Amino acid sequence: MSPPALFNRVLGNASRAANLPTIADEAQELIAGCVKDLQSLHSQIVELSMFSPNETLEDISTRDLVYLTVPYVFAEVQGRVMASNRIERLNSLIQAEKFVQGFISLLDRYEIVPQDERALYERKTANVADMAKRRELKINQYKKEKELRGRIEVKPPVKIRKDRGQNAMVDDTPTDFDLISSLLPSSAPKGIKHENEEADSETDENLRESTLLLLRLFYTRACTQLQSMEQELDLLRNAPPSPIHGPTQGGEDPRDKQRQLENDTWKLDIPVAGGPDGKGPLLDPTGKPLRPFTILPSDAGERARLQAQVFGPGHRLPSMSVDEYLEIERQRGNIITGGGPASQAAPTSSEQLAIDSEMDGTAEGETKAEEKRQKDENWARYTDENPKGAGNTMNRG
After folding, report:
1. Is the pTM of this model over 0.85?
2. pLDDT tens-digit profile of 119-145?
3. Using CA of residue 167, residue 185, residue 5, residue 39, what is the dihedral sign?
């Protein structure tokens, strides 16, 4: 099969696989066929010496420029190969990385990408420590990719394909594979020629310009994909190995039965999914709290008391009546008693002492009489030692 027909079949199958889920069997069958056809196409390109290091971009014909996208298509198809384990994904990703690097080096060799674009995409965003500069770099790269897409939409390959008499694509939003397919040579018989040779020449110029713009657009995407692949490869290489589950050699191990019996005897309860309250786990595997929670005591009575206070008032309620409070204060001696008419009619301490001392013939009367005599003697001694007016010596004239 000729290279155009083989490449066209690859692009058609890859476009159909891109519109299907990657895990679908039909998509994987299409991808496997694309990988086999791409290997055959690559062998034909090498045999025909289509690209030589001694050539320049002007030496490559317009119809051969489209085959510069073969490594890019190979990387896209290889990246969609489904892997069942980490090793398979790692090997598939390494192959895709080689194709992307080959595509980038091929464009650099023929100087298809301008120097300013190469300098812009050679800077890796992951290596920029400053977040503001990293964001600015991503914005500039996105603007450049958007500019290239806009220039391709002005004169898209789909329109050129119509000009060349090929069947146009029905889909209004073609994939990358459809855009590349529109650049392939026409499948019309060799004897049929266009009526206007000057229009044919103009179409070839437009086709060459669109092909170069498409290659520059794929260059921007390839640089971005290469950074993503490097990050994924780093994760896969540092990931722990998957546990190997397989049958034991020499039949069934008798120790497995013993372990099963021990597990059945000392089996712990399975933790409730979603945390103890069903609202999700409280802690992550590293012990970091995921949401607020309250640690309560294990005592059921204390927990019930705290639970009863949930819907209580915001202030503290009284714990005793007013009478109980006054009785406690009276017992403490904080309440002064007496006063009023009853207190006015009652005798003073001196009068009560005089009354008690007149109780003749009793021991209490004699005690009170002696107490009254000592009191009177102390008062007389005090008046003798402190005559009236002796202490006020400041206001004398």
Report:
1. no
2. 888 887 777 778 888 888 889 888 888
3. negative
